[in-house]
Amino acid sequence: MQYKILSNKHWPIFDFRKGFKYLLPGITLAFLFLISCEPFGDEADTLEGVWNCTENSSEYGYQAYEVNITYLKSDSSQIGIDNFYNLGSGKVAVADIDIWDLELNTQTIDGFIISGRGTISGNLKKIDITYQVDDGSGTIDNVTSSYEK
């Protein structure tokens, strides 16, 4: 029985001399792509957490305090801001989120009628809110606040 030796043209053999010049840049690009990606779901890509609030009120002047922001379980386009207006823990204002805009629809928290709007920074590390508070005395408190993570 006679055996025939097949030449390279019949086998899909990788020619390292020709292919290496394409292989190394491809591996390098794939590596750079993988290390440039940030992990999804870390603390940096959420509004939830403790924020430092500095605000200026027409009635009370400058104040600094902490608030805690959480997403509402019933609607992920809404957040709850605990200790809003420095009213204390458990006093939560609800805000609607639309991309980078924040809307505080008129709501009553512990007898204070609150409404306003704000913006969220693109890196989710700063929120600026302008709002009004009516405590029922006839004087409206105009407030500008800045939350920072």
Task: Give a written overview of the molecule.
- With 149 residues, this protein is mainly beta.
- The protein has a domain at 47-148: Lipocalin (Beta Barrel), CATH 2.40.128.420.
- The protein is 14% helix and 48% strand.
- It has one helix spanning 16-36, and strands at residues 49-57, 61-72, 75-82, 92-98, 101-109, 112-120, 126-134, 140-148.
- An 8-stranded antiparallel β-barrel has the order 1-2-3-4-5-6-7-8.
- The longest helix is centred in the N-terminal third of the chain and has 21 residues, at 16-36.
- It is elongated.
- The chain starts with 15 loop residues before the first helix and ends with a strand.
Key terms for this structure?
1 helix; mainly beta; Lipocalin; single chain; 8 strands; 8-stranded antiparallel β-barrel; 149 residues
Low-confidence stretches: 38-42
From N to C, what is the helix and strand string? HEEEEEEEE
The overall pLDDT, averaged over residues, is: 85
What is the CA-CA span between the terminal residues?
A: 81 Å
Please give the share of residues in helix. 10-25%
CATH top level of the domain at 47-148 is: Mainly Beta
Rg (C-alpha, Å): 29 Å
Strand order of the largest sheet: 1-2-3-4-5-6-7-8
Number of DSSP-assigned strands: 8
Query: How much of the polypeptide forms β-strand, as a percent range?
Result: over 45%
Largest sheet: 8 strands, antiparallel, barrel
Q: In the CATH classification, which architecture of the domain at 47-148 applies?
A: Beta Barrel
Number of helices: 1
Shape: elongated
CATH topology of the domain at 47-148: Lipocalin
